[in-house]
Amino acid sequence: MLLHKIDEVREKVREWKKQGLTVGLVPTMGALHKGHLSLIKKSVEKCDKTVISVFVNPIQFCPGEDYEKYPRTLDADTKLAEEAGVDIVFAPSAEEMYGKGGILSNDFLTYVIPPYFYTDKLCGKSRVGHFDGVCTVVNKLFNIVQPDYAFFGEKDRQQLIIIKKMVKDLNIPLTIISCPIVREDDGLAMSSRNKYLSEDQRKEALVLKNILFNIKSCYNSGIKDIKALTETAYEFLKPCHELEYLEFRDRDNLEAKTEADKNTVVFIAVKIGSVRLIDNVSLES
Ligand code: PAF
Questions:
Q1: Would residue 36 show up in a list of annotated catalytic residues for this protein?
Q2: For ligand 1, mutation pick of 37, 60, 134 (most atoms within 8 Å of CB)
Q3: In whole angstroms, what is the distance from residue 264 CA to residue 250 CA?
Q4: Could you tell me which of 166, 169, 149 has the C-alpha nearest to residue 158?
Q5: What is the pLDDT of residues 173-185, one digit of tens each?
Q6: How far is the CA of 27 from the centre of ligand 1 (A)?
Protein backbone atom coordinates (compact mmCIF):
# COMPACT_ATOMS: atom_id res chain seq x y z
CA MET A 1 0.00 0.00 0.00
CA LEU A 2 1.44 3.37 -1.05
CA LEU A 3 0.67 6.19 1.41
CA HIS A 4 1.72 9.84 1.22
CA LYS A 5 0.20 11.27 4.40
CA ILE A 6 1.51 11.04 7.95
CA ASP A 7 -1.98 10.60 9.42
CA GLU A 8 -2.77 7.67 7.13
CA VAL A 9 0.38 5.84 8.22
CA ARG A 10 -0.31 6.57 11.88
CA GLU A 11 -3.86 5.22 11.60
CA LYS A 12 -2.74 1.99 9.94
CA VAL A 13 0.06 1.42 12.47
CA ARG A 14 -2.35 2.11 15.34
CA GLU A 15 -4.62 -0.68 14.01
CA TRP A 16 -1.67 -3.09 13.88
CA LYS A 17 -0.52 -2.18 17.37
CA LYS A 18 -4.06 -2.82 18.71
CA GLN A 19 -3.75 -6.34 17.33
CA GLY A 20 -0.41 -6.75 19.11
CA LEU A 21 1.61 -6.89 15.87
CA THR A 22 5.29 -5.88 15.71
CA VAL A 23 6.34 -3.24 13.21
CA GLY A 24 9.65 -2.86 11.35
CA LEU A 25 10.75 0.35 9.61
CA VAL A 26 13.26 0.56 6.77
CA PRO A 27 14.03 4.22 6.06
CA THR A 28 15.23 4.82 2.48
CA MET A 29 15.59 7.57 -0.07
CA GLY A 30 14.27 5.22 -2.76
CA ALA A 31 16.08 4.01 -5.91
CA LEU A 32 15.91 0.63 -4.22
CA HIS A 33 18.66 -1.90 -4.91
CA LYS A 34 19.65 -5.27 -3.47
CA GLY A 35 21.14 -3.56 -0.41
CA HIS A 36 17.75 -2.09 0.50
CA LEU A 37 16.07 -5.39 -0.32
CA SER A 38 18.31 -7.16 2.20
CA LEU A 39 17.10 -4.71 4.91
CA ILE A 40 13.50 -5.27 3.85
CA LYS A 41 13.99 -9.05 3.93
CA LYS A 42 15.32 -8.85 7.49
CA SER A 43 12.38 -6.72 8.58
CA VAL A 44 9.82 -8.97 6.90
CA GLU A 45 11.38 -12.02 8.60
CA LYS A 46 11.57 -10.40 12.03
CA CYS A 47 8.40 -8.28 12.21
CA ASP A 48 4.71 -8.90 11.58
CA LYS A 49 4.44 -5.72 9.50
CA THR A 50 7.01 -3.73 7.54
CA VAL A 51 6.92 -0.06 6.58
CA ILE A 52 9.49 1.49 4.28
CA SER A 53 9.83 5.21 3.81
CA VAL A 54 10.85 6.58 0.42
CA PHE A 55 11.84 10.19 0.92
CA VAL A 56 14.68 12.14 -0.64
CA ASN A 57 15.28 14.26 2.41
CA PRO A 58 16.19 17.81 1.33
CA ILE A 59 17.70 18.82 4.67
CA GLN A 60 20.46 16.21 4.57
CA PHE A 61 21.90 17.49 1.29
CA CYS A 62 24.52 20.22 1.44
CA PRO A 63 24.56 23.10 -1.04
CA GLY A 64 25.95 21.91 -4.38
CA GLU A 65 25.16 18.23 -3.70
CA ASP A 66 22.92 15.99 -5.80
CA TYR A 67 19.49 16.66 -4.21
CA GLU A 68 17.90 17.66 -7.52
CA LYS A 69 19.35 14.83 -9.56
CA TYR A 70 19.07 12.09 -6.91
CA PRO A 71 17.26 9.18 -8.64
CA ARG A 72 13.51 9.17 -7.98
CA THR A 73 11.85 5.91 -9.04
CA LEU A 74 8.78 5.63 -6.81
CA ASP A 75 6.70 3.35 -9.10
CA ALA A 76 9.49 0.81 -9.46
CA ASP A 77 10.35 1.11 -5.74
CA THR A 78 6.74 0.47 -4.70
CA LYS A 79 6.54 -2.59 -6.94
CA LEU A 80 9.82 -4.02 -5.64
CA ALA A 81 8.91 -3.30 -2.03
CA GLU A 82 5.48 -4.90 -2.30
CA GLU A 83 6.93 -7.97 -4.00
CA ALA A 84 9.39 -8.22 -1.11
CA GLY A 85 6.52 -8.26 1.42
CA VAL A 86 6.39 -4.60 2.51
CA ASP A 87 2.99 -3.58 3.92
CA ILE A 88 3.29 0.20 3.62
CA VAL A 89 5.46 2.34 1.35
CA PHE A 90 5.40 5.78 2.95
CA ALA A 91 6.36 8.43 0.40
CA PRO A 92 5.63 11.87 1.84
CA SER A 93 6.26 15.17 0.09
CA ALA A 94 8.80 17.58 1.58
CA GLU A 95 5.92 19.82 2.59
CA GLU A 96 4.17 16.93 4.37
CA MET A 97 7.35 16.29 6.37
CA TYR A 98 8.48 19.83 7.08
CA GLY A 99 5.56 22.13 6.35
CA LYS A 100 5.91 25.14 4.08
CA GLY A 101 8.01 27.09 6.58
CA GLY A 102 10.41 24.21 7.18
CA ILE A 103 11.20 23.88 3.50
CA LEU A 104 11.69 27.56 2.98
CA SER A 105 14.08 28.12 5.84
CA ASN A 106 16.00 26.10 8.41
CA ASP A 107 15.15 28.85 10.88
CA PHE A 108 11.63 27.43 11.09
CA LEU A 109 12.52 23.84 11.81
CA THR A 110 13.41 22.01 15.03
CA TYR A 111 16.53 19.92 14.40
CA VAL A 112 18.01 16.91 16.16
CA ILE A 113 21.75 17.60 16.35
CA PRO A 114 24.04 14.63 17.02
CA PRO A 115 27.26 15.24 18.99
CA TYR A 116 30.02 17.08 17.17
CA PHE A 117 32.52 14.38 18.16
CA TYR A 118 30.63 11.97 15.88
CA THR A 119 30.00 14.38 13.02
CA ASP A 120 33.23 16.36 12.62
CA LYS A 121 34.99 13.46 10.91
CA LEU A 122 34.74 11.13 7.91
CA CYS A 123 31.71 12.13 5.79
CA GLY A 124 30.70 14.84 8.26
CA LYS A 125 33.87 16.77 7.51
CA SER A 126 32.98 17.49 3.89
CA ARG A 127 29.19 17.22 4.35
CA VAL A 128 28.68 19.80 7.08
CA GLY A 129 25.18 19.55 8.57
CA HIS A 130 24.42 16.29 6.76
CA PHE A 131 23.98 14.22 9.91
CA ASP A 132 21.77 16.90 11.50
CA GLY A 133 19.43 16.42 8.55
CA VAL A 134 19.65 12.63 8.80
CA CYS A 135 18.96 12.54 12.55
CA THR A 136 16.10 15.00 12.20
CA VAL A 137 14.32 13.03 9.48
CA VAL A 138 15.00 9.64 11.07
CA ASN A 139 13.69 10.90 14.41
CA LYS A 140 10.56 12.17 12.66
CA LEU A 141 10.10 8.83 10.90
CA PHE A 142 10.47 7.04 14.25
CA ASN A 143 7.80 9.31 15.74
CA ILE A 144 5.46 8.85 12.78
CA VAL A 145 5.75 5.06 12.45
CA GLN A 146 6.69 4.16 16.05
CA PRO A 147 8.34 0.92 14.94
CA ASP A 148 9.61 -1.80 17.26
CA TYR A 149 12.65 -2.30 15.03
CA ALA A 150 14.40 -0.07 12.50
CA PHE A 151 16.85 -1.43 9.94
CA PHE A 152 19.98 0.36 8.68
CA GLY A 153 22.82 -0.79 6.43
CA GLU A 154 26.47 -0.92 7.47
CA LYS A 155 27.41 0.67 4.15
CA ASP A 156 26.62 4.04 5.80
CA ARG A 157 28.35 3.01 8.99
CA GLN A 158 28.95 6.52 10.36
CA GLN A 159 25.22 7.15 9.92
CA LEU A 160 24.40 3.86 11.65
CA ILE A 161 26.66 4.67 14.63
CA ILE A 162 25.18 8.17 14.93
CA ILE A 163 21.61 6.88 14.78
CA LYS A 164 22.35 4.28 17.47
CA LYS A 165 23.79 7.07 19.62
CA MET A 166 20.69 9.23 19.05
CA VAL A 167 18.37 6.34 19.99
CA LYS A 168 20.35 5.73 23.19
CA ASP A 169 20.70 9.39 24.17
CA LEU A 170 17.05 10.25 23.49
CA ASN A 171 15.65 6.99 24.96
CA ILE A 172 13.76 6.21 21.77
CA PRO A 173 11.86 2.98 22.46
CA LEU A 174 12.97 0.78 19.56
CA THR A 175 15.81 -1.52 18.54
CA ILE A 176 18.19 -0.69 15.72
CA ILE A 177 19.15 -3.66 13.59
CA SER A 178 22.31 -3.25 11.54
CA CYS A 179 22.62 -5.17 8.30
CA PRO A 180 25.83 -6.13 6.45
CA ILE A 181 26.95 -4.40 3.25
CA VAL A 182 25.63 -6.04 0.10
CA ARG A 183 28.16 -6.11 -2.74
CA GLU A 184 27.95 -6.59 -6.49
CA ASP A 185 29.58 -9.81 -7.78
CA ASP A 186 32.85 -7.93 -8.33
CA GLY A 187 32.81 -6.49 -4.79
CA LEU A 188 31.52 -2.95 -5.34
CA ALA A 189 29.30 -1.95 -2.40
CA MET A 190 25.73 -1.40 -3.57
CA SER A 191 24.63 2.24 -3.55
CA SER A 192 21.96 4.28 -5.31
CA ARG A 193 24.75 6.62 -6.39
CA ASN A 194 26.46 3.83 -8.41
CA LYS A 195 23.91 4.80 -11.09
CA TYR A 196 25.93 7.98 -11.70
CA LEU A 197 29.04 6.02 -12.77
CA SER A 198 29.99 5.78 -16.45
CA GLU A 199 31.24 2.41 -17.71
CA ASP A 200 34.87 3.39 -17.15
CA GLN A 201 34.17 4.93 -13.74
CA ARG A 202 32.31 1.76 -12.73
CA LYS A 203 35.57 -0.17 -13.26
CA GLU A 204 37.59 2.44 -11.36
CA ALA A 205 35.08 2.28 -8.48
CA LEU A 206 36.54 -1.10 -7.48
CA VAL A 207 39.46 0.81 -5.99
CA LEU A 208 37.53 1.24 -2.72
CA LYS A 209 37.00 -2.43 -2.05
CA ASN A 210 40.48 -3.30 -3.39
CA ILE A 211 42.07 -0.99 -0.82
CA LEU A 212 39.84 -2.16 2.04
CA PHE A 213 40.11 -5.88 1.34
CA ASN A 214 43.88 -5.59 0.94
CA ILE A 215 44.15 -3.77 4.28
CA LYS A 216 42.08 -6.49 5.91
CA SER A 217 44.26 -9.23 4.50
CA CYS A 218 47.46 -7.39 5.61
CA TYR A 219 45.91 -7.02 9.08
CA ASN A 220 45.03 -10.72 9.13
CA SER A 221 48.62 -11.54 8.21
CA GLY A 222 49.79 -9.70 11.33
CA ILE A 223 50.33 -6.02 10.40
CA LYS A 224 48.73 -3.82 13.07
CA ASP A 225 50.57 -0.56 12.43
CA ILE A 226 48.11 1.94 10.95
CA LYS A 227 50.76 3.87 9.01
CA ALA A 228 51.99 0.67 7.37
CA LEU A 229 48.41 -0.44 6.61
CA THR A 230 47.56 2.99 5.16
CA GLU A 231 50.59 2.89 2.89
CA THR A 232 49.31 -0.30 1.25
CA ALA A 233 46.54 1.84 -0.31
CA TYR A 234 48.93 3.77 -2.52
CA GLU A 235 49.61 0.84 -4.83
CA PHE A 236 45.90 0.94 -5.87
CA LEU A 237 45.44 4.69 -6.29
CA LYS A 238 45.60 6.31 -9.74
CA PRO A 239 45.32 10.00 -10.71
CA CYS A 240 41.62 9.47 -11.52
CA HIS A 241 40.92 8.50 -7.89
CA GLU A 242 40.57 11.41 -5.51
CA LEU A 243 41.02 9.94 -2.04
CA GLU A 244 38.94 11.97 0.43
CA TYR A 245 39.72 9.88 3.49
CA LEU A 246 41.07 6.52 4.59
CA GLU A 247 40.72 6.23 8.34
CA PHE A 248 40.89 3.62 11.08
CA ARG A 249 38.25 4.22 13.73
CA ASP A 250 36.51 2.52 16.63
CA ARG A 251 33.40 0.62 15.52
CA ASP A 252 31.25 1.96 18.37
CA ASN A 253 32.27 5.57 18.95
CA LEU A 254 34.36 6.50 15.89
CA GLU A 255 37.42 7.39 17.98
CA ALA A 256 40.65 7.34 15.96
CA LYS A 257 42.64 4.16 16.51
CA THR A 258 46.33 4.23 17.36
CA GLU A 259 46.76 0.58 16.40
CA ALA A 260 44.48 -1.66 14.35
CA ASP A 261 42.55 -4.27 16.33
CA LYS A 262 39.35 -6.29 16.06
CA ASN A 263 37.23 -3.28 17.09
CA THR A 264 38.59 -1.23 14.20
CA VAL A 265 36.60 -0.24 11.14
CA VAL A 266 38.47 1.08 8.12
CA PHE A 267 36.50 3.84 6.39
CA ILE A 268 37.15 5.12 2.88
CA ALA A 269 35.71 7.81 0.60
CA VAL A 270 36.93 8.30 -2.97
CA LYS A 271 35.74 10.65 -5.66
CA ILE A 272 35.80 9.28 -9.19
CA GLY A 273 35.06 12.19 -11.47
CA SER A 274 32.20 13.93 -9.72
CA VAL A 275 30.87 10.74 -8.09
CA ARG A 276 31.71 10.38 -4.42
CA LEU A 277 31.68 6.80 -3.16
CA ILE A 278 32.09 5.43 0.37
CA ASP A 279 32.77 1.99 1.77
CA ASN A 280 34.11 0.42 4.95
CA VAL A 281 35.32 -2.85 6.37
CA SER A 282 35.44 -4.18 9.91
CA LEU A 283 38.73 -5.83 10.92
CA GLU A 284 36.87 -8.29 13.14
CA SER A 285 37.21 -11.62 11.32
O1 PAF B 1 20.61 6.17 4.33
C2 PAF B 1 19.69 6.82 3.77
O3 PAF B 1 19.18 6.44 2.71
C4 PAF B 1 19.19 8.11 4.42
O5 PAF B 1 20.24 8.81 5.01
C6 PAF B 1 18.05 7.88 5.40
C7 PAF B 1 18.48 7.04 6.59
C8 PAF B 1 16.89 7.19 4.70
C9 PAF B 1 17.56 9.22 5.94
O10 PAF B 1 17.09 10.04 4.93
A1: yes
A2: 134
A3: 5
A4: 166
A5: 999 999 999 999 9
A6: 6
User: How close is the Cα of 214 to the center of ligand 1, in Å?
Assistant: 29
Rounded mean pLDDT, 78-100: 96
DSSP code at position 277: E
Q: Which residues are CB-neighbours of 188 under 8 A, at least 6 positions away?
A: 194, 202, 205, 206, 208, 209
CA distances from 236 to 10, 172, 216, 266, 270 (A): 50, 43, 14, 16, 12
Q: Is the CB of 27 under 6 A from ligand 1?
A: yes
Q: Ligand 1 atom 1: the closest Cα is on which residue?
A: 28
Q: What is the pLDDT of residues 129-178, one digit of tens each?
A: 999 999 999 999 999 999 999 999 999 999 999 999 999 999 999 999 99
Both ends of the chain: CA-CA distance in Å? 41
Does 57 contact ligand 1 (Cβ within 6 A)? Answer: yes
Residue type, 282: S
Q: CA-to-CA distance for 202 and 272, rounded, in angstroms?
A: 9
CB 149 within 8 Å of CB 26: no
Strand partners for 248: 266
Atom of ligand 1 nearest to the CA of 156: 1
Q: Is the pTM of this model over 0.70?
A: yes
